[in-house]
Design brief:
By secondary structure, this protein is of the alpha/beta class. The protein is about 50% helix and about 20% strand. It has 23 helices and 15 strands. The chain has helices at about 40-45, 50-70, 80-85, 90-100, 110-125, 160-170, 175-200, 210-225, 245-255, 260, 270-290, 300-315, 320-325, 330-340, 345-360, 360-365, 370-380, 395-400, 410-420, 435, 440-460, 495-500, 500-510; strands spanning about 1-10, 10-20, 25-35, 75-80, 105, 130-135, 140-150, 150-160, 205-210, 240, 295, 470-475, 480-485, 510-515, 520-525. It has a six-stranded mixed β-sheet, sandwiched between helices. A hairpin with a 4-residue loop joins strand 6 (about 130-135) and strand 7 (about 140-150). Helix 7 crosses helix 11, helix 13 packs across helix 15 and helix 18 (about 395-400) runs antiparallel to helix 19. The two termini are about 45 Å apart.
């Protein structure tokens, strides 16, 4: 089987094409990279510029042709911070789908960190109980992951990236002393609180991934007369970055103008533009975390995407509730679930069903894994309002989510989660509802799509008895056909399904057909 993965980052778009089977690790057939700088315009004005969008579309089209020329049966695609923060991200995603047929997943920073951790673990093969720290500096964000053996345990995403920092702090060439002081102060202020958490846990080895770290490592290696590739982006694994050498290099980079930096061995002009901020970011991370030396790893997000995809293909569908419990990106949602003493088993079943519905309707809702995570969080928290009152508990749930510390989610994401949970029952979204009206038009449509799935998912366990074990969902023309697996005992749990399909029918124009394994069929038409 041949697979391809596209990593649509804030600075560059990367391609990897691999051959794999169930008996052995995958073999890389081809790779490629195009710098498109989506993050530059997003950092400046909050949207992807027309030029950046055109460059990205051209790169994706080129890479799609290349992947298909190798016989790729699937092209996985994921976008990171620049795309997920862009006000016009829906336009970009729609244009890519229309022109290339490729659906792009929007990754959260936490999910990005997890995928990078999987790649580093697969490439570097740490000992079973060894603690490993993986650091990835991107254009718009930096991801850190602590692993125990091959398993990610703690995941952190920081809104610190080489492009973002360059746009915000570097306006002269070379950088001025004042700008450098502001940049260094910002870095240490943001990093210090999270560094304390990591240092308490501790780690035995540290690896750095992606272009900025690889470029800095290659530049240092060249100074030590180590043979590295002399042009383009270095990809060598295992090169060391020592904090003492990095400090000296950064001091020189800050004194150089762009033209001089671009003449350094292994440094492209595009990389030279952001290398000062990227070098300062890596130095601040190493200092704050007490890292004397890290080594590069050539595998990163795109390889992690393939590893995770292969794992999903071989995993048992019935294990999904357990996987939700082990998902580190939902740790904050579980903490809130426990704090408000909601029914954990019902919350997990609802999240499981919501995830199945989300996956079945991907071709219609065009949302990515970032939105799937929001839906799962809303499903876990949809009943926490019972602690306040049974009456209107959906409204209380929304209020509590809005006003609680929900670790691992940005403020804008919390607003979406609260709204999705708010509409798991009772009336559909309306502009007279304050929380919903506060969202922009794109987010309101996202809430409608995801809330329609949550309403239906909750209905399959409305009595909290677990009579339905799992759902088999598929779209067939204008119908969503759902088989509720659980035998005749599941029939009594389905009395609310017809009522709760109202929003889904309105949003997607689907008739909903529900059959119970071994039981009678219920049909709800849209006509």
């Amino acid at each position: 089987m041949i697979l391809a993965a596209l990593d649509i980052g804030s600075n560059s778009i990367h391609l990897v094409v691999v051959e794999t089977d169930a008996e052995k690790p995958f073999r890389v057939l081809a790779s490629g990279k195009e710098m498109v700088r989506l993050g530059r315009s997003v950092a400046r004005d909050g949207s992807i510029s027309p030029d950046a969008m055109s460059r990205a579309l051209a790169a994706i089209q080129l890479f799609a042709l290349r992947a298909r020329s190798y016989g790729a049966s699937e092209i996985l695609a994921a976008a990171t911070s620049a795309t997920r923060e862009a006000a016009n991200r829906e336009e970009f995603l729609a244009r890519v789908l229309d022109q290339t047929g490729i659906h792009i997943d929007l990754l959260s920073g936490i999910e990005e960190a997890r995928l990078i951790a999987l790649a580093v673990a697969a490439r570097e093969r740490p000992r079973t109980r060894a603690k490993t720290l993986a650091i990835d500096i991107g254009g718009g964000s930096t991801e850190l992951a602590l692993l125990r053996g091959p398993h990610p345990e703690d995941l952190i995403s920081l809104k610190l990236g080489a492009v973002r920092l360059t746009e915000r702090f570097v306006s002269s060439d070379p950088i001025s002393d004042k700008q450098l002081k502001r940049l260094r102060a910002e870095l240490r202020g943001v990093i210090a609180p999270r560094a304390a958490e990591i240092k308490r846990t501790g780690f035995d080895a540290c690896y750095g991934t992606s272009g900025t770290i690889n470029t800095l490592a290659a530049t240092l290696a060249h100074r030590r007369s180590v043979t590295v590739q002399s042009s383009g982006e270095p990809q060598s694994s295992g090169l060391p970055v020592r904090i003492s050498e990095l400090r000296a290099l950064n001091a020189e980079l800050c004194a150089m103008d762009l033209e001089t930096r671009a003449k350094l061995p292994g440094v492209s002009r595009a990389r030279a533009e952001i290398l000062v901020a990227g070098g300062q970011l890596l130095e601040a991370l190493m200092e704050s975390l007490g890292i004397e030396v890290l080594r590069t790893s050539e595998w990163a997000l795109r390889e992690g995407m393939i590893i995770a995809h292969l794992a999903r293909r071989t995993s048992s569908q019935s294990a999904a509730p357990g996987k939700i419990e082990r998902d580190k990106s939902l740790r904050g949602a579980f903490a809130l679930l426990e704090h408000y003493r909601a029914d954990r088993k019902h919350a997990l079943r609802t999240a499981y069903f919501a995830g199945q519905l989300f996956d079945a309707l991907r071709p219609l809702h065009l949302l990515g894994s970032e939105h799937r995570r929001l839906l799962l969080a809303a499903a876990l928290l949809h009943d926490i309002g019972y602690l306040v009152s049974h009456t209107n508990h959906h409204k209380h749930s929304a209020y509590l989510i809005h006003n609680s510390e929900l670790t691992g989610f940005m403020e804008s994401e919390v607003a979406l989660i609260a709204n999705i949970a708010r509409y798991h029952r009772s009336s559909p979204p309306k502009l007279k509802h304050p929380f919903y009206a506060a969202l922009d038009e794109a987010d309101r449509e996202t809430v409608r799509r995801l809330a329609s799935l949550l309403r239906l998912a909750d209905a399959f366990d409305r009595d909290h008895q677990g009579r339905v074990r799992k759902l088999d969902c598929r779209c067939d023309g204008g119908r969503l056909k759902i088989t509720a697996l659980g035998g005749r005992a599941a029939e009594s749990a389905l009395w609310r399904v017809e009522e709760r399909a109202d929003l889904l029918k309105d949003v997607f124009g689907l008739a909903v057909e529900v059959a119970v394994e071994g039981g009678r069929e219920m049909t709800e038409q849209t006509e």
